[in-house]
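Support request, please re-run this one:
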Amino acid sequence: MAESLLEIGTIVGTHGLRGDLKIRLKSGDPDLLMTMKQVHLHLPTGETLDVDISRQVLHKGQVLLRLRGYDSINRVESMVGGHILINEELLPELGDDQYYWGDLKGLEVVDQEHGSIGQLQDLFASAAHDTYVIKGRFGEVLIPAVRQFILDIDLEGRVMQVALPEGLIPEQQ
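Re-run finished. Output below.
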C-alpha cells in the first residue's frame, strides 16, 4: 500500500551539538509537527528515511526536531536541505478557503490584468502571512497569500486567479 506524503517543511540548518534540526514550515501553524511522533525525510541525496522524533521545540518561529538515533551534529549535517513529509491521512480537515501546500504547488497563476504570470513553485511563511513564489515570464514574483490578492483557487482546473497590486510585477520595457 503506497502512502501519500505531503511536504510540510524544509530542513534549513542545525542547532546545537546534539543533532537538533531547524525546520522551516511551508505554512502557518506548527502544531501539527509538534504532535507528530514520526516523519519521513527526503534528503538532498535523494534518500528517503522514516524517522522517529524524540524531541520537538518551537524556537524563533521555527521548529527544532531531534530524531531518535541521530543525537549529534555530525549525524544530521548532511540532512540540511532535505524535506519533512507526513502521511496525508494524518492531516486535519481544512475549512473553506484553506489548502495544503501539496494541493497548490504547480498551479498556473493568472492575474486579472497581466494574464498568466507563471506557476506556483514555492511557499514560505513569515510572521505576517504566507507568501507564494511564482516563477514565469516575469521572473520570480512574490505574492502575499492574503484574501485581498487571491481571487479564486480552482484545484480541478489547476488555476489560481489573482488581483495583484501595482508595482508587484515589473513594468515591461
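Residues 5-90 form a domain with the Elongation Factor Tu (Ef-tu); domain 3 fold (CATH 2.40.30.60). The helical segments are 31-35, 73-76, 101-104.
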